[in-house]
């Protein structure tokens, strides 16, 4: 009797290989969303089709486009992100299969032996692949929506602190974005907004009502793509002054699904309407009246994103914000002065 045919790699080594190859084939959700966002924007009709996103300029082009077509950008970016993820996942799985079944090995097997080998791998090896892919998809879904909203705000000239730290509470909150930053929330809370990004609600919406009671920001928004929210949930959220934000397509589906009154329906905003509201809310701040700690935290935040964010559109925008901030209150600590010098290209 011939010994059983076994994979070309042990299970322990294969598990390590999965981690190594995933980094090579699957970009972070933030990078994946950024690439999809760029492709969507650059494929939209515009006056100068030969320019790419970085050349177009934020406020000269992106702002009017996003303010008028944010929902379309959201839908198309999410679609393209998922399509690209599937392609990346496929190339990832192909390379893993080559690790399991090298070509020279398969060439020596009969069809029956090949089938037996594949069946043998289903128990453990394929399970590890499926588990890794499932975790990756959850990671993508959990982070890509917040990253996409971050880009929308950036495109209309509004800074955001992704999962901004709210100092009064140590544990992680349900808030995905603090607008414009947690420093603004400390210094001028009535001119700030909090955004929770949830593709689907399920049960997690309940914690938002508690969050709304604790924070003193002017507005709290729940951005979602869920078109099956119950009427009871909508009423509870609206009674807690949490504004539901979605695409016009989803809003129409919700109104039909829940048979909402015109009053309830009017309180559900599109992404375009939310951006206009937030832009008006955050249009001016008196930085001369801020305490030193809040102001320096803000400048350090702008400087850190400008220096370290790998997305050119985002890093360039925050460098511009740091320059503008410096003009409003020019006295600085040495560390902040160093950041400003780097942005200005002096060092």
UniProtKB/TrEMBL annotation:
MF terms (GO), sorted A to Z: DNA binding; type II site-specific deoxyribonuclease activity
Domain Restriction endonuclease type II EcoRII C-terminal positions: 124-247
Query: Gene3D superfamilies in the record, alphabetically?
Result: 3.40.91.80
**Which InterPro entries does the record cross-reference, listed alphabetically?**
EcoRII_C_sf, Restrct_endonuc-II-like, Restrct_endonuc_II_EcoRII_C
What Gene Ontology biological process does one annotation of this record name?
Answer: DNA restriction-modification system
Q: Superkingdom, according to UniProt?
A: Bacteria
What is the protein's given name? Restriction endonuclease type II EcoRII C-terminal domain-containing protein
């Amino acid at each position: 009797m011939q010994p059983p045919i076994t994979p070309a790699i042990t299970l322990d080594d294969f598990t390590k290989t999965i981690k190594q190859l995933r980094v090579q084939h699957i970009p972070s959700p933030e990078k994946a969303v950024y690439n999809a966002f760029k492709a969507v924007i650059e494929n939209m009709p515009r006056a100068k089709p030969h320019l790419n996103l970085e050349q177009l300029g934020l406020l000269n082009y992106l702002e009017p486009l996003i303010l008028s077509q944010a929902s379309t950008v959201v839908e198309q970016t999410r679609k393209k992100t998922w399509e690209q993820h599937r392609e990346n996942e496929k190339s990832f799985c192909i390379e893993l299969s080559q690790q399991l079944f090298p070509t020279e090995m398969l060439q020596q097997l009969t069809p029956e032996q090949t089938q037996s080998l594949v069946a043998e791998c289903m128990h453990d090896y394929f399970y590890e692949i499926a588990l890794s892919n499932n975790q990756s998809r959850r990671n993508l879904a959990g982070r890509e929506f917040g990253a996409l909203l971050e880009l929308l705000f950036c495109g209309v000239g509004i800074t955001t602190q992704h999962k901004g730290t709210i100092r009064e509470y140590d544990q992680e909150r349900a808030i995905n974005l603090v607008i414009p930053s947690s420093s603004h929330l400390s210094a001028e809370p009535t001119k700030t907004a909090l955004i929770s990004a949830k593709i689907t609600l399920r049960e997690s919406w309940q914690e938002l009502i508690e969050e709304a009671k604790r924070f003193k920001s002017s507005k709290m928004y729940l951005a979602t793509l869920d078109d099956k929210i119950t009427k009871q949930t909508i009423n509870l959220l609206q009674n807690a002054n949490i504004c539901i934000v979605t695409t016009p397509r989803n809003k129409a589906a919700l109104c039909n699904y829940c048979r909402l009154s015109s009053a309830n329906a009017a309180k559900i905003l599109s992404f375009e309407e939310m951006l206009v509201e937030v832009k008006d809310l955050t249009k001016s701040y008196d930085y001369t009246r801020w305490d030193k700690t809040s102001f320096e935290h803000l400048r350090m935040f702008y400087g850190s994103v400008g220096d370290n964010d790998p997305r050119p559109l985002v890093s360039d925008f925050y460098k511009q914000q740091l320059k503008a901030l410096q003009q409003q209150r020019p006295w600085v600590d040495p560390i902040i002065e160093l950041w400003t010098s780097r942005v200005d290209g002096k060092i």
